[in-house]
Amino acid sequence: MQDLFTILFLIGFIAFFIFLVIGVLAVKRQNGKAKRNFILTGVFLAMCCVGLYGIQAMADTPTEVVADQPEEAQTGSTVVDDQEVQHQTKPSLFNMTTDEFKNEFNSIVGKYRLNGLGITKLDLIDSQENNTSAFQYDFNDNLSMGGLLNSDKKVQQVMLLGSGGFSEQTGGTLMTAIATLIMTTNSEYTYNDAQDVIKDIGLLDSNVNLNDFDGATVRNGYKYRFKIKDNNTSTFGITAAK
Q1: Radius of gyration of the chain (CA)
Q2: Which of 162, 238, 229 is nearest to 198 (CA)?
Q3: N or C, which terminus of the chain has less Cβ within 10 Å?
Q4: Region 78-105: what's the mean pLDDT?
Q5: DSSP sequence for 163-227
Q6: Which tens digits make up the pLDDT trace of 5-63?
Q7: Dihedral (C-alpha) 237, 240, 241, 242: value to the nearest 10 degrees?
C-alpha cells in the first residue's frame, strides 16, 4: 500500500509542474487552453497531496511484529526466569533421590562455607526383605548421618548421630550439621530460620539439661526431633509430621 501512495505522489508531483508551466504559457499566448491546463494542474496537485498524506499515514502506523517474538510470547504463555523455574521444580526432602539430597546439602555447605561438612558419596545399603534401602555417611569420628529410602529410592527419613557430648569441638559441629540439614528440607530457609527451628525444639533454652533432653517441633510437614542421652549420644531426626 505504501508503494501505491508513493507512485501516486510522484505522478501528481511531476504532472503538477508540467501543467503549471503549460498553463502559464497558454496565458501568455492566449490560445484558449489556459483554463483547461489550470484545471489539470489542480487535479494533479490534489493527487500529489493524497499520495503524500498516504505515505505519512503509513509511516505513522506501527507495524505489529510477531515472527521475531519467542514462541512462548506468541502463544500467550509467560516466560519465567531460569532460577525461578529451578526453585519451583526443586523437590521436597521426601521426594529427593540420594544424589539430589547430597547436592542440595552440599550447596548449603558451600554457600555458608561450612568446612568439614561436605558429602562426597553416600553409602547405600539395600534391604531385600522389605524392598527399601538405607544410606550412611561419616563426617568424622564423632558425627555421622543415616537415612531411609522408600521403594522408589526417595529419601523418607534422615538422622544425625553425634557422640562426645556438647564439648566445644563436637557440639559446635553437631549444631552446624543440624542447621544445614534443616535448611536442606526447605530451600527458602536461611541460617537464621534454621536457628529458629532449633529454638522451637527447646535446645537453646537457658535451663536446658544437656545430659537428658528430648524435644521436637513441627514445621511445613516435617517433624524435627532432638534427643540427648547420657550426655554422650545425641540424635537429630527429620521425619514426616503425622
Answers
A1: 41
A2: 238
A3: C
A4: 67
A5: ESTT-HHHHHHHHHHHHHHHHHH-TT--HHHHHHHHHHHTTT-TT--TTEEEEEEEETTEEEEEE
A6: 566 566 766 765 576 667 667 666 666 666 676 677 676 667 666 666 666 665 554 44
A7: -120
160's grid cell:
544425625
Question: Per-residue DSSP letters for 89-132?
Answer: HPPPGGG--HHHHHHHHHHHHHHTT-TT-----PEEEEETTTTE
Grid cell 522408589 in the structure block, residue: 152
Residue 2 corresponds to which amino acid?
A: Q
Residue 8 is placed in which grid cell?
501516486
Tell me if residue 11 falls in helix, strand or coil.
helix
Rounded to an integer, what distance in angstroms lies between the CA atom of residue 114 and that of residue 118?
A: 8
**What percent of the chain is helix, strand and coil (3-state, nearest 5)?**
45, 20, 30
Query: How many C-beta neighbours within 10 Å does residue 167 have?
Result: 9
Cell of 25: 504559457
- How many angstroms separate the CA atoms of 141 and 198, rounded? 24
